[in-house]
Design a protein that fits this description.
Oligomer: single chain
Largest sheet: none
Structural class: mainly alpha
Number of helices: 4
Radius of gyration: 22 Å
Helix content: 55-70%
Amino acid sequence: MLLPARAEVARHLRQYRSWERKLLAHPADHTVRMRFEDTAYTLCVLMGESKARMAADAAELYLRPRAAHRPKPLPVAPVPATPRSL
């Protein structure tokens, strides 16, 4: 599967968040709602998700530093001390 450029994902996620804030501030504004829906759709297509919230979450996960994607190593149990024979 081809992955989108990280810079593009970051740009579209910023736009999505910006329009989301504007829509929350002005829920009755038809123009703001249309812009938000357009950016949400673009983010969905870019991230391969069907819902805007899932696409935003996927974008945030994709943009995390690569080390954050690696599983953490399992803790090593301490070796119990054994009595020494004389």
